[in-house]
């Protein structure tokens, strides 16, 4: 008796649960042309706590109807969150005319906490697939020619740039071979301006002044660079190896040149002595002494450049 009572309760619950669930399958249209597309909407509506096993349709139905698209399953809830609606969109096509009966689609579900599975099935559907009507009384017409679409400027840009590149290459090749034929250099380098020795020396002394080396405490660097500028000037102006001579040897060589004024040599001698004291005795001259060395160097260049009848060769600057 207990077993029979349990079966009756289960059946009653099944009838009640089935009444709460509604499933539908609806075609967009019941008639289509061969090769056309038709949509089907699967819908499940039931309690929110119902577990649903969604039906999966094979790729081919009834041998001729083909599933060509499967949308995702959308979920919506009722306003009180107690009901749920699941929806999926499918697309079909058919390449054989005829009348087709699509059988009902079964949904499996169970109501928590009950573990019993129930089935809800949609109504069957009718689908008519028609062929395209052809009027055989009319003559066969040729296939239409492809439509002529105007070319846009954006599509022409690559061709324009390519044409310009080809033209530039042709011009460059003609120019190159003409240069080779006339034995001319392909590229002409701009020649540097040649400065006279005293012009280059004065230019370098101005750079030294702007550096402000002795103002930053770099006494040795300041006097070393000053004497090096003057020695380079003497080498180009008088053709004396000034960079290789000691201070005394350099002064003796200049004293033997008649075109070199004695007062200019005396100024150079003071500059060399001050530089030797700074470099070897590590002396720290007063600011006035540092300024005087630079001023005497400029005076030495002016005096020797004006007094020397034969100006030295130009130097690239």
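Q: What amino acid sequence fits the structure above?
A:
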């Amino acid at each position: 008796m207990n077993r029979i009572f349990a079966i009756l309760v289960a059946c009653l619950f099944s009838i009640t649960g089935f009444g709460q669930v509604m499933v539908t399958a609806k075609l967009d249209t019941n008639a289509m042309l061969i090769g056309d597309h038709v949509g089907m909407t699967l819908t499940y509506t039931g309690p929110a706590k119902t577990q649903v096993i969604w039906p999966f349709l094979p790729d081919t139905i009834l041998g001729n109807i083909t599933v060509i698209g499967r949308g995702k399953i959308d979920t919506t809830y009722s306003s009180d969150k107690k009901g749920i609606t699941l929806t999926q969109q499918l697309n079909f096509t058919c390449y054989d005319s005829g009348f087709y009966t699509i059988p009902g689609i079964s949904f499996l579900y169970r109501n928590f906490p009950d573990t019993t599975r129930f089935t809800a099935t949609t109504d069957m559907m009718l689908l008519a697939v028609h062929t395209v009507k052809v009027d055989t009384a009319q003559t066969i017409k040729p296939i239409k020619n492809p439509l002529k679409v105007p070319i846009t400027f954006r599509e022409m840009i690559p061709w324009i740039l390519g044409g310009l590149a080809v033209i530039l290459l042709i011009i460059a090749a003609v120019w190159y071979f003409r240069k080779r034929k006339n034995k001319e250099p392909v590229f002409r380098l701009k020649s540097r301006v040649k400065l006279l020795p005293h012009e280059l020396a004065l230019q370098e002394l101005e750079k030294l002044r702007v550096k402000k080396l002795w103002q930053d405490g770099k006494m040795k660097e300041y006097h070393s660079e000053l004497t090096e500028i003057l020695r380079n000037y003497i080498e180009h102006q008088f053709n004396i190896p000034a960079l290789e001579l000691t201070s005394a040897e350099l002064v003796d060589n200049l004293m033997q040149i008649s075109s070199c004024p004695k007062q200019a040599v005396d100024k150079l001698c003071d500059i060399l002595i001050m530089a030797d004291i700074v470099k070897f005795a590590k002396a720290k001259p007063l600011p006035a002494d540092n300024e005087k060395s630079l001023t005497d160097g400029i005076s030495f260049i002016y005096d020797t450049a004006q007094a020397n009848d034969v100006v030295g060769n130009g130097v690239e600057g």
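Q: And what stands out in the fold?
A: Residues 4-19 have pLDDT under 50 and may be disordered.
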